[in-house]
Amino acid sequence: MWRRIRTITWFSLVVLSGFAGVGFAYDVVEVKNGATITGRVTFTGTPSQAPRRFEVRNGPEVCGPERVLTKLEVYNGMVKGVVIALEGVERGKPFSSHHDTATGQGRGEFQYAGGNALNLGVRLEKCSFGPFTGVIVADEAVQFVNHDSIKHTLHTYALKGRKAKILRTLHTQSLRARRQTEKVFPAKKLRRAVAVGLTCDRHDFMENWLYVVKNPYHAISDESGNFHIGQVPPGDYNLVAWHPVLGMKEQRVTVSPNGRLPVDFEFVK
């Protein structure tokens, strides 16, 4: 009888800022007269990305015999998993501490420790990195912990426009816990990068995307398409809605002291 051996393998990587050579800089300060941005993300049309089903040949005792990869989740015209990010905020609230867990058979999790930095940790479990979309901050180390008893071969990509360029391939270990610290990525590979993609060479259904943010003013739309960003310093900003399948939309917004600003995004296919 196959015996499950619980193992933990972790390694860290550092994503360097590729935005015109400017490094990440954000200061945590007290926010006075902060405002709130709320809204929802809608979809009109027929989704072109149907869920894909995979027969699991590598580690079905851990992953399950069959898995489904859903890249676009639309419920009654509302889109789940769209990253909403406010650009141009250089000083403000600290990063929040929270965990986002994958749905379905996977139990992967994006763990954001928060504080003065995002402090992202990725927990691999049941052949899953976490939800399909998340966020990452340039110049920060990201720790990956493999809780499965099988190996995963992680590929990381920099998404630039519609092209994704491989950054690095990392191999986890399954039988013995081992610390592996990866060297930083060359900055030139991430110039103008929008997001970092995660895939596993051994399991095609493992795919995730982390949008590159520079501050804690971001959110991810829920099943009702709703999002909420609080404690926003008054000012003029660019608000971005991004999804790896739908692409990007932007709106220029003006945030008033103690205000509540409604902003909606609509994607059409």
Question: What report would you give on this structure?
Answer:
With 269 residues, the protein is mostly beta strands. Helices cover 1% and strands 50% of the residues. It has one helix and 25 strands. The strands form seven sheets. Strands 10-11-12-14-1-17 form a six-stranded mixed β-sheet, with no helix packed on it. The protein is globular. It starts with 8 loop residues before the first strand and ends with a strand.
Low-confidence stretches: 1-10, 17-22, 174-188
Strand content: over 45%
Rg from C-alpha positions? 19 Å
| Main β-sheet, spatial strand arrangement | 10-11-12-14-1-17
Q: What percent of residues adopt helix (DSSP H or I)?
A: under 10%
Overall mean pLDDT stands at 84
Query: How far is the N terminus from the C terminus?
Result: 50 Å
In short:
1% of the residues lie in helices and 50% in strands. It is mainly beta and 269 residues long. The longest helix is centred in the N-terminal third of the chain and has 4 residues, at 60-63.
What are the SSEs and their pairings?
Blueprint: E1 9-14, E2 27-28, E3 35-44, E4 52-55, H1 60-63, E5 66-69, E6 73-75, E7 78-80, E8 83-87, E9 91-92, E10 98-101, E11 109-112, E12 120-124, E13 133-137, E14 141-146, E15 153-160, E16 163-171, E17 179-181, E18 195-200, E19 203-213, E20 218-220, E21 226-232, E22 235-243, E23 247-255, E24 260-262, E25 265-268
Parallel strand pairs: 1-17, 2-9, 3-24, 3-25, 12-14, 13-19
Antiparallel strand pairs: 1-14, 3-21, 4-5, 6-7, 8-20, 8-22, 10-11, 11-12, 15-16, 15-18, 18-19, 22-23
